[in-house]
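Intended use. Records like the one below are meant for learning the mapping from a protein sequence to its folded structure. Do not use them to infer anything beyond what is encoded.
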Amino acid sequence: MTPIHEELLREFQEFAGSAKSAEALMEHICHALHERMTRYNWVGFYLVDPADDNVLLVGPFVGSFTPHARIPLSTGLCGTAARTGETVVVDDVSKDPRYLAGSPLVKCEMVVPIFVKKKLAAELDIESYFTGAFTQQEREFVEACAVMVQRYMEKH
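Structure written out for the chain above:
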């Protein structure tokens, strides 16, 4: 990981120690990633709908508006990550039929599922206006951010 990745993870870990809620931690992560990682143009969390665990609801996010406040788990890259339980990275969304188009500016997307007690609880979704923005290092970093949220949710 790069020094900025390590610095942000330390900051998130410290914040997690006193965060009042999982949503507060998510908001902190969104703002910091959006502000400090220049190619992270939209950063947000989707949460499993408490009334319907086949739907994701937009949670804390930073960036332009999102046209997708509700995403069925059968749809898009978020749905793919939920169904497979694996991180999904698409370097050029225009070439992936699973992509659920939101903004014409988005070129690249990464979605990391967050499981709590082996059940999908949330996803960390990052979009970039640059193709190929998410290297293996970026993927490992974002997965580490998601694990921090997972651990917080498991404790609280």
